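Bug report (template v2)

What were you trying to do?
Predict the complex of my protein with zinc ion.

What happened?
Run completed; filing so the output is reviewed.

Input:
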Amino acid sequence: MGNSVFLKGATLIDGNGGEVVQNAGILVEGEKIVAIGEANSVKVPETAEVVDLQGKTVMPGLIDAHVHIMGGKSLNLAASALEPTEVQMGRALNDMPKLINAGFTTVRDVGSILAVHIKTLMEEGQYKGPNIQTSNQVLSQTAGHGDMHMLPPEFNTSRICDGVPDCMKAAREQFRAGADLIKICSTGGVLSEKDDPRWPQFTVDEIKAIVHEAEAVGSYVASHAQGAEGIKNALVAGVKTIEHGIYIDDEGIDLMVKQSAYLVPTLSIVKRIVERGHLHGVPEFGIRKAKRVYETHKEHMVKAYKAGVQIALGTDFAGCDPVDHGENGLELELLVKDVGMSASEAIQAGTKTAAETLGIEDTLGTIEAGKQADLLVVEGNPLEDVTTLVNTDNIKQVYVKGELLKDIS
Ligand SMILES: [Zn+2]
């Protein structure tokens, strides 16, 4: 038994991509949505608090399927590695209300050592913020994307593992620490010094062993995968989600469709590094590589989208300029502008499809009776113009588990 709230009179986008419901009624009890429909058709208990939302839009809370909760000062990862973890924890906790302010009620952290502890603090009620799914440490091979090439090995916060037995152990260690999924790097990347986004990393056997460990505990694997070969290696080995996907080829696209895998493009970080990286400490090699991949990335995402690959919203934002948490709505705009999605499809990428990507579609991602009450009240109609959601002033209220965490109405 919790408090009842009846949200009345708004235009409802339920996240399923169908027609909106005008003059909708949503009854929330405690953490859950218990009834939904046209306002007049919902039976409302006398004790319920009624919130009049005429002229507003209600939609599911947004989900960012690719963030890092790391509290760094800049994208200069070598400099970040030398800072005290306690300082970074303070910054990372400050990022939680910023995500809520932007309407992101769930995030998937794919690499940090702080998120498992922030989850604990939020479960204790010490802090409020979005629901978090986390991989804890990234798994990378020696000299891979997650290995800090520019520093001695002891500065790594990733788990460096080589060979099948070590990869299995590394995956088990993450679950021991409280991970919800495993994140690996099956190619090089942009912000790693001595590798190239096109190079494959880990063998198929190593990735298979990690997938085996994840599936044994009912979880799954997400792979940082940018080059065509490493994308396919990951898919052949049974990875569920492909992160970035920059150089995906036709074979890779085919495999993704066949296996119902999910693609998380993270267009936002590449755009931000290209445009503003030089102002914020991104090393020269990172800017050079980002510029090189930018156009190719967009072209390949359009191809994947047209082929019917399931695409989820992810920014790769990490909580420092130029990839601040709280600006994650940018990806919605880019899914429309750069990939060619409709506003409705972009919203689905950030709600329903993102929930499927995280495997939490039974409780989140759409507004339906029985689901968790993670809702946004928005000024204007994001189906007409998705950038409505980029301006956080338009996000008037944010509910997480039925609790009002933002209210500027
Ligand atoms: Zn990332």
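What did the reviewer find?
The first strand starts at residue 4 and ends at 12. The two ends are 27 Å apart (CA to CA).
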